[in-house]
Specification:
heterodimer, A: alpha+beta, 4-stranded mixed beta sheet, 3-stranded mixed beta sheet, 43% helix, 8% strand
Chain lengths: 489, 1227
């Protein structure tokens, strides 16, 4: 009987053991991974380099190839990725059905993270309201910036008359992978959305965020001005640019131009120039924020196993003629193929710019304001901004804008666009300028061509850009998932 | 040591182990001797032997056994009986006993009383049998004797002639029958009466008859393939002797261990399989448990693990992957669940195979569903040895040596030096590749000569002379001598087991030493196991299993030379000194010289000297403990608790000295010196080396409580077994890595680096132009997962004929965060079995001894890996050395994820015919895996164009057959055959919309899956030969011929088959003649295809690395001039890559249907000659079992390809033959 008591006691204890187990036993978040809960988590989400650095693929890689400031060498062109070749030829479809468009994917991924921050940060634990507002504002500015890229890829160039009916890009405000159907908003709606986002962000943005990849107030003002300029709202653009300059000056470390005369001089930062181009120039260091109001960078060099690669591309000789001999920006070009192989034709390849900057650069801000000043007939103001840039790019003697141009509004506007080529050739800026020019009466009738140079002289192939191709078609893998969504012609 | 008395056994155990018992006096006093029949009692009370005492003697015998072992094997089988030589004149009987004892090991039991009566002995014998010598000695003595178990018991000659007459009338005829383990008669078994030198062979019906039996003799029964049986008669007239088989293959295993319950095999409904443990234990060429199962279990395919042949998931050990019943997942693991002593373990690599008692493979749902969400790939249950109750001390030694030698090459697969130089001359193109452009390239010696000639630096005669000398060099033997070492392994295991009523124990200690073919590699493994069983009372059992394993691995830094290396480049000169090979650094001489001048870093490269430029040392300690508690409460109600804890900690130290080429090149990338005059600035330490310490630890624990209720109703007509239980499981692991730079091994000092500065680009660095350093000085990886499960089991047998099994299990896991709604999917199974042969209407027939039909159905799961899905966005926390800490959305919220569910139907049949001589089972199964976890293409606008989801399904169906046959079973000779056959058909039925990257022709060629096809599909272009430029052409779907690059579409491809074999299995034959047996195990894999390695090279014909540089021999056979297209399929060589790319597509040849070949093969995996010394011999040397074997294997008997390719190795290499020796001794 005694044993039975022992056994019963054990039995009873075991029955207890069966039923007792903590409810949250299975709730564990793996170490090294986490779920966003605190305001600090959202702040760190906005410090994510993936929102600013497209160092693998994406950014303006495709746009850099589509600009008419580039030409191609056939010896390398045949080996280039098929999308690279298609982009250069301005084919209707850049991506085959099996390809992915890295550029758009990256930006859509950014939107997921930005939407998450915008929608959730105000409910996060800890942190004061001002901090939450700053985080939200930074996310809204970043989102507007992404939309500005997307609308300029997939929407027609902004024309006030047709924007309300021109198809743009879906405005996505949620982070939810299960949404099945999206609808394209109009170009007008997207532009208004961008303006609204920048405008609401500007008052809350900090002057001095932690790093150069986060939006500060002046960067958002500059970007807003750029949006206005793209819409032809010159007065709004000018005031925004002025605000950007003013606020930039108030920053602890304002964005400023590198003086090329100094930096290429003896012992200068950009010297020596070795086989990889000028040493220590910002194009090789994506963490060099000296000229950036807000830093966004993309990989713009040889094919790295992903993205487009620019092995085959040289500066179009027409663009090359725009440079004065003393222009120090020519030091970023060499008559070479990749890997220091000489190009006997003498055509120039850009080197020393592994990562192109395209967020908002102080150099572009000068050029944008010069343009809007020229358009609003402040010619001397425009010249001053132009020369401010030029004297940092070449010896002072060569920096002055010729008087025949400085005195003529149309010439001056054209000169600003040429200066943009000199400053940003082969880095994708030209594609956006070509789009703007297509709806600008000043540039009416302009025809864009691409030349593929073959080894044997006289057999060059010339491609001509058809106007509808200024607007990209949505890749097939996107339209397949959105049946019924109209694509661009 | 076979004295059938447990007390005595315990007594001896103490003595032989502890030596603590004082030796009994040689002088025997006051010994009571009642009568001969109480001999054992007497023996127990007091022992007196003339030559000391038994234990000491036994000990000595053990030590000499090994020596004897070799001697014995040299003498013929006929002389096995022990012989002695004596030459004594008037010696005392005691002295003679002493001599005999020393020579033979026989013990004598005699009282001092008797000795007083004894006469002096004079005898002269030379090499005579003990029995005859003893007969001579006792002829003239007033004493009688008998031999019991190597003990000579001396007794008084009491019987008179009348006494003998009485004995005669008392003697009788004994009748008996010898049966096997299934109570079937054994014909031809040997029954011997001990000490009388007479025997009898059993008849067809197993019967035997012995006349003149006194009633106290001992019968020794032997039968090939069975353990010898000894039976002490005690007056019975009729005996039944049941033999126990040696090998499990011959034995229908009666008990199945699923890890949750022990099942009677006869009553089990599920698909269970066991390997032949004899073959398993003799496969000493590998210590990996899974590897040893190859070809032994129907439905189990063994293939090289993820790290290649001989690597486990951590890249160490030699863990092989196994697949049970086909691949039933696309994205998840296809490996089965491994269970050790009832507890789930991540792998079995640290188990000493000698400790394995039993392996059970659970294949269908009825067998495996009790493992729930992890059981879809099947379960392999391993049970380790334990001590048996009431068992004497057994000491067992297992030793094995296995020699594998060096890698073997497929001669003629690559070009030889002469062919290579010839090809190099033919393809040399200095126009397409001006030397000025090759600054960043490898320029091999032959190419340098050609360029020198091209630049007129040398004359044609000089060039030809140099090239001719290169073409005469064959470096293969030097590579084999210098870059490889002979691989071998040894294993030594000593184990002991014993037990009494309350306590039993099994313990083993082993050492395994392995040396791979890589110079400097060394692996030592020590393991200790201690399995104890405690029965404190008749209602309680406690089992404690402890395993300790320590693995020590060491490696150096040899250059890995692949089969495709340049055929002429030597590594050492005639004096054995290392040769300099600067071109292998990868820069032209001028660039290298410039770098060296500016950096002041010596860049000379001597590959042979790299060996000692670093090392890795690993030390892994694994502790595995489990406890089982069994408590019987009241009638039939019992509790079973299983508690497992497993912890492994390991440290790997890696050191790479700055003198190594890699380190010097890295340093170069962090050295700035603009000119030769600048003093170079080193941003990384230029002395010492890189030292990293990786500490990993993992721990798993399992708690399982089961309540069982067993009852038998209606006098055995109903047997019911119900179990309920819950199980909690946690698995976690952490890996911490620390890295130090500029570390000095001697001084233990290191440099402190400025990581923030180093993370910014360093411009003007020699070698790289600009460099960034993002090494983390400390890194940590951790993961943890938990499972909580409830389960139930139900077994019912009606009339011993109709069985019903059912199980259900609900798993919830932390892998899905808190949303457990998707987890409310229980795994369950139901199975039935009908034992036809137990039916009355079947009882009449005799040819069918056993027939059982089974059918089961159930659902099992395959659980996703950690972090596969979550209800929240899972963030990744990273750190950028400049921008600081950040978070990134790593996997978007995805709460609709669940585990893959496999629905399995299984139909089985077990049978035995011809009196059990042919037994077997066959299975037919249909597995349908639903909710396959895969990349789901979401709408790209969501920002997550693809994420994991449950999509699609895959179907596996197949047939399995296991046959065991005793073809010949004679007194001295037996031949048995075992056959295992599996057929698996696999089809990916749906997998959502195919991923975009799987749509193009080229993508489809590389895809590992495609909807509508078996896993690992192989597609090919329809080859249309070469055109008049030597460019490969294909037939497109519309029948047109094309060579246009990048235009092929999926419809232009044809399906060639699958890379996963459809048929596999093994065939083993064992021939046994007396104590010698020969076992041959064949394995085969059929029904799969592979791509033949082809040469489709373009660009410079030169070296890129130590495994690349040479081209396949078929390159010499390439298209060279118009018209060649009629003779060859190998494309022409086009040096200009631009031309090559724009003109043609070489993959049209590489992926052509003509280059898809069958990978079917048949291998003699191992052939073993073993000697199993019979008990009658071992009797004399106090050894219970002694066997040794020699083994070799890996003979490719047949392959379907004509190219001479060993499908297991795929090209340049082929399998070598291992040679192994093994020894197994039990005391």
């Amino acid at each position: 009987m005694k044993i039975n008591i022992y056994r019963s006691v054990i039995f009873g204890l075991l029955c207890l053991a069966f039923s007792s187990c903590k409810k949250d036993f299975l709730v564990i978040v793996p170490e090294g991974q986490k779920v966003a809960t605190s305001t600090e988590d959202y702040r760190l989400l906005m410090a994510d380099p993936a929102l600013a650095l497209y160092n693998f693929a994406g950014g303006w890689q495709g746009q850099a190839i589509m600009g008419d400031d580039v030409a191609a060498e056939s010896s390398m062109f045949g080996q280039a990725q098929l999308p690279t070749q298609a982009a250069f030829r301005w084919d209707n479809q850049i991506f085959r059905i099996e390809d992915k468009d890295w550029t758009t994917d990256n930006w859509l991924e950014n939107l997921y993270q930005l939407n998450k921050v915008i929608n959730e940060v105000q409910a996060a634990k800890g942190g004061d309201a001002q901090l939450k507002d700053e985080i939200e504002a930074a996310a809204r500015a970043s989102r507007a910036w992404v939309y500005f890229q997307l609308i300029n890829l997939y929407g027609k160039p902004y024309l006030a008359g047709t924007a309300a009916t021109d198809l743009g890009f879906p405005i996505i405000l949620t982070s939810d992978i299960t949404v099945e159907q999206f609808k394209r908003n109009t170009v007008q709606e997207v532009y208004e959305f961008i303006i609204k986002e920048f405008s609401s962000a500007i008052p809350k943005l900090p002057m001095n965020p932690a790093t150069g990849i986060q939006f500060n107030k002046s960067a958002a003002e500059g970007m807003l001005g750029k949006v206005y300029l793209f819409m032809g709202r010159n007065a709004d653009a000018l005031s925004s640019f002025n605000a950007a300059f003013a606020d930039n000056a108030l920053r602890a470390v304002p964005a400023k131009l590198y003086d090329y005369v100094l930096e290429f001089g003896s012992g200068g930062k950009f010297t020596p120039i070795n086989y990889d181009g000028p040493n220590n120039s910002p194009g090789n260091n994506y963490n060099d924020f000296t000229e950036s109001l807000v830093s966004r960078r993309f990989y713009n060099s040889s094919y790295s196993g992903n993205g487009y690669g620019n092995d085959a591309f040289v500066l179009d000789p027409k663009a090359q003629t725009l440079f004065g001999n003393a222009d120090l920006r020519l030091k970023f070009y060499a008559p070479e193929f990749p890997w220091s192989t000489p190009n006997p034709s003498g055509r120039l390849r850009k080197y020393g710019v592994t990562y192109s900057a395209f967020g908002l650069q102080i150099s572009e801000l000068y050029l944008l304001r010069a343009e809007v000043k020229a358009r609003t007939n402040d010619l001397s103001g425009a010249v001053a901004d132009l020369e401010m840039l030029r004297k940092n790019r070449m010896p002072a003697a060569d920096a002055t804008v010729p008087s025949a141009i400085a005195g003529n509004q149309i010439n001056l506007i054209k000169y600003v666009f040429e200066e943009r080529i000199r400053e940003f050739a082969m880095e994708g800026y030209r594609w956006f300028d070509m789009r703007r020019q297509s709806v600008d009466p000043i540039f009416a009738g302009q025809v864009h061509t691409h030349t593929l140079y073959n080894f044997e002289a006289g057999t060059n192939t010339v491609f001509t850009l058809r106007p509808e191709r200024l607007t990209l078609r949505l890749p097939q893998y996107i339209t397949d998932k959105n049946p019924g969504m109209p694509n661009n012609p | 040591m076979r004295i059938p008395d447990s007390d005595l056994a315990a007594h001896q155990l103490l003595k032989s182990i502890n030596y603590a018992i004082p030796p009994p006096s040689r002088q025997c006093k006051g010994i009571r001797l009642n009568q001969t029949k109480q001999m054992y009692n007497f023996y127990k009370q007091k022992l007196c032997t003339p030559s000391g005492y038994v234990a000491k003697f036994l000990l000595m015998m053990r030590l000499t056994t090994f020596i004897l072992f070799t001697v014995i094997m040299q003498v013929s089988a006929g002389s096995f009986a022990q012989r002695i030589s004596l030459s004594e004149k008037n010696a005392s009987l005691v002295a003679v006993f002493d001599r005999i004892s020393k020579q033979t090991g026989f013990d004598f039991i005699v009282t001092s009383d008797m000795l007083k009566q004894a006469n002096l002995v004079s005898i002269r014998v030379n090499n005579e049998e003990v029995s005859s010598v003893l007969a001579k000695i006792f002829e003239k003595q007033p004493l009688d004797y008998s031999i019991k178990d190597r003990i000579v018991v001396v007794s008084k000659k009491e019987k008179t002639v009348i006494g003998h007459v009485v004995d005669f009338f008392n003697s009788y005829t004994l009748r008996g029958v010898v049966l096997n383990e299934r109570n079937e008669p054994l014909a031809g078994a040997n029954v011997i009466v001990r000490g009388q030198n007479r025997g009898y062979g059993t008849l067809e019906n197993g019967n035997f008859m012995l006349e003149d039996i006194g009633g106290s003799e001992m019968l020794i029964t032997s039968y090939v393939g069975y353990k010898n049986d000894s039976l002490m008669l005690s007056g019975q007239r009729m005996v039944t002797i049941r033999m126990v088989p040696l090998s499990t293959k011959l034995r229908e295993v009666a008990v199945l261990n699923t890890g949750y319950q022990k099942l009677d095999k006869e009553r089990a409904t599920g698909a269970y399989s066991k390997p032949d443990m004899q073959v398993f234990s003799e496969r000493v060429g590998t210590n990996d448990i899974i590897n040893r199962l190859e070809g032994l279990v129907a439905g189990v395919a063994v293939s090289p693990g993820p790290g290649g042949r001989g690597a486990n998931r951590y890249g160490t050990g030699n863990n092989q992957q196994s697949v049970i019943r086909g691949l039933s997942s696309v994205n998840l693991q296809s490996e089965p669940l491994y269970v050790l002593d009832g507890v789930q373990v991540p792998n079995l690599s640290y188990i000493n195979p000698n400790d394995v008692e039993d392996v059970t493979v659970l294949k269908d749902a009825a067998a495996a569903a009790i493992y729930g969400a992890k059981a879809a790939n099947g379960v392999i249950v391993v049970t380790t040895k334990t001590g048996k109750k009431d068992q004497q001390v057994h000491i067992n030694y297992n030793g094995a040596f296995s020699f594998n030698g060096k890698p073997k090459y497929n001669e003629g697969f690559y070009m030889n030096s002469a062919q290579y130089i010839q090809a190099a001359k033919e393809t040399f193109d200095p126009v397409a590749y001006p030397i000025a452009q090759l600054s960043y390239n490898y320029i091999a010696p032959h190419e340098q000569i050609l360029y020198n000639l091209n630049r007129s630096l040398i004359t044609e005669a000089q060039a030809n002379k140099s090239l001719d000398s290169l073409s005469r060099i064959n470096n293969r033997s030097q590579i084999n001598d210098l870059m490889f070492q002979n691989s071998f392994s040894t294993n030594n295991t000593v184990s002991a087991s014993a037990g009494n009523r309350v306590y039993s124990i099994y313990s083993s200690i082993s050492h395994t030493h392995t040396r791979s073919t890589t110079p400097g590699d060394l692996n030592n493994n020590f393991s200790l196991s201690l399995n104890q069983t405690l029965n404190p009372s008749n209602w309680m059992t406690i089992g404690l299993n402890t395993g300790l394993n320590n693995g020590l691995a060491r490696s150096k830094r040899p250059v890995n030379v692949g089969t495709g290396f340049l055929p002429y480049q030597l590594f050492a000169d005639d004096n054995g000194d290392a040769l300099r090979m600067n071109y292998m650094v990868g820069w032209a001489p001028e660039r290298l010289a410039d770098y060296q001048l500016r950096s002041r870093i010596n860049l000379d490269y001597y590959p042979l000297n790299e060996l000692d430029n670093g090392f890795s040392k690993g030390n892994l300690l694994n502790v595995n403990t489990s406890a089982n508690v069994g408590i019987r409460f009241w009638k039939g109600l019992s509790f079973q608790g299983t508690y497992g804890y497993q912890r492994s900690t390991g440290t790997t130290e890696t050191y790479q000295d700055i003198s190594s080429m890699d380190s010097r090149k890295e340093l170069l990338n962090f050295t700035v010196a603009r000119s030769a005059n600048d003093i170079p600035v080193y941003y990384l330490p230029a002395t010492g080396g890189r030292f990293s310490v990786a500490d990993r630890s993992s721990q798993n624990w399992t708690l399982r409580n089961q309540l069982a209720f067993n009852t038998v109703l209606r006098g055995g007509k109903d047997r019911i077994n119900i179990q309920l239980g819950n199980e909690v499981l946690e698995q976690s692991s952490v890996l911490n890595t620390t890295v130090r730079r500029g570390y000095s091994i001697e001084m233990k000092t290191y440099s402190l680096l400025d990581y923030v500065t180093l993370a910014k680009p360093l411009f003007g660095a020699i070698g790289s132009g600009y460099s960034m350093f993002n090494e983390k000085p400390f890194d940590r990886l951790a993961e943890k997962s938990r499972f909580m499960s409830y389960f139930g089991l139900f077994n019912y047998a009606f009339n011993e004929r109709y069985m019903l099994d059912a199980s259900i299990r609900q798993d919830k896991s932390s892998l899905f965060a808190s949303d457990q709604s998707a987890q409310n999917k229980p795994a369950f199974s139901i199975g039935a079995k009908w034992l036809l042969t137990k039916e009355r209407w079947m009882a009449r027939q005799t040819w069918l001894n056993n027939l059982g039909l089974r059918a089961t159905y159930g659902v099992t799961g395959n659980s996703p890996f950690l972090g596969a899905g979550s209800t929240f966005d899972i963030l990744y926390s990273g750190r950028d050395n400049v921008l600081g800490n950040y978070l990134h959305v790593n996997s978007p919220a995805n709460n609709k994820l669940s585990w893959e569910a496999t629905h399995t139907w299984n139909f089985g049949m077990d049978f035995a015919v011809l009196r059990g001589r042919l037994t077997g089972s066959t299975e037919l199964y249909f597995k349908n895996t639903k909710d396959l976890l895969g990349q789901v293409e979401y709408n790209p606008f969501t920002g997550s164009s693809s994420t994991r989801g449950n999509i699609g399904n895959i179907k596996n169906s197949g047939v399995e057959l296991t046959l065991n046959s005793r073809n010949i079973q004679d007194r001295n000779f037996s031949w048995s055959t075992g056959m295992v056959f599996s057929y698996n058909r696999n089809k990916l039925v749906s997998y959502s919309v195919p991923s975009q990257f799987l749509v193009g022709a080229s993508s489809q060629l590389g895809a590992s899956y495609l909807v509508g096809y078996a896993r690992r599909p192989v597609f090919a272009y329809r080859y249309a030969g070469l055109d008049n430029l030597g460019d490969p052409q294909i037939f497109k779907a519309d029948g047109s011929v094309s060579k246009e690059p990048n235009t092929a579409l999926p419809e232009d491809l044809i399906y060639m088959g699958t890379g996963q074999p459809k048929y596999n299995g093994g065939l083993s034959n064992t021939f046994r003649y007396k104590f010698v047996s020969l076992t041959a195990n064949l394995i085969y894999n059929l029904g799969a295809v592979m791509r033949k390695p082809t040469e489709n090279y373009t660009g410079r014909l030169t070296v890129g690395s130590f495994s690349d540089g040479n081209r396949l021999a078929e390159f010499a056979n390439r298209w060279k001039q118009p018209g060649d297209e009629a003779r060859t399929n190998v494309p022409s060589y086009v040096s200009n890559q631009g031309t090559n790319y724009s003109r043609r597509d070489l993959s049209y040849y590489a992926y052509a249907d003509i280059n898809v070949i069958s990978s079917d093969y048949l291998k003699l995996r191992d052939v073993t000659l073993s000697f199993d010394l019979s008990r009658s011999l071992l009797e004399h040397i106090q050894v219970e079992k002694l066997s040794f074997f020699v083994q070799t294997g890996n003979f490719l008997l047949w392959k379907a390809n004509k190219e001479g390719i060993d499908p297991e190795y795929g090209g340049g290499e082929k399998g070598g033959h291992a040679f192994s020796l093994g020894l197994n001794v039990s005391f």
